[in-house]
Amino acid sequence: MPLHTVDRRWYDLDLAVAVIGNPHTLAWCPEALDRPSRDRIENLGLDLIEVSRGEAEHFALNLISDGDTVTMTRSAPRLAAELRSRGLHVVELSTTELAKGGGGVRCTALTLDQR
To answer: Which Pfam families match (predicted)?
Structure first.
């Protein structure tokens, strides 16, 4: 599905959208996406968690989730609290050094799909 961010600040889609799972949950920053992209996401029928622009700018959505555990930056307390309220185990890491290079937790992982 094509999704487009609104400007260069959102240079990777994983800064604007994160698949949480559990089973069909998506965290996203609507402000980071253009109107057609927002409409596409809203029409998917998923459980959507809106993330503030401020937290998204601090790599809140650059996370890893297996559907039960979410590993994410410590710089997004509201998102972490929301995930915990949904019964997910949240691991928060200091990502200060990663952020200096323009990345977050997801940038440190290799996801292998077992099909």
So the answer is: DDAH_eukar
| Alpha carbons 108 and 6: distance in angstroms, whole number | 25
Q: How far is it, in rounded angstroms, from Cα 85 to Cα 82?
A: 5
Per-residue pLDDT tens digits for 10-43: 999 999 999 998 779 999 999 999 999 999 999 9
Q: Residue 115: pLDDT band by 50, 70, 90 thresholds?
A: low
Intra-chain end-to-end CA distance of the chain, in Å: 21
Domain ranges of the chain: 8-107
Rounded alpha-carbon distances, angstroms, from residue 69 to 17, 22, 66, 72, 100: 17, 10, 6, 10, 25
Predicted TM-score (pTM) of this structure: 0.89
Element (H, E) at 77: helix 77-85
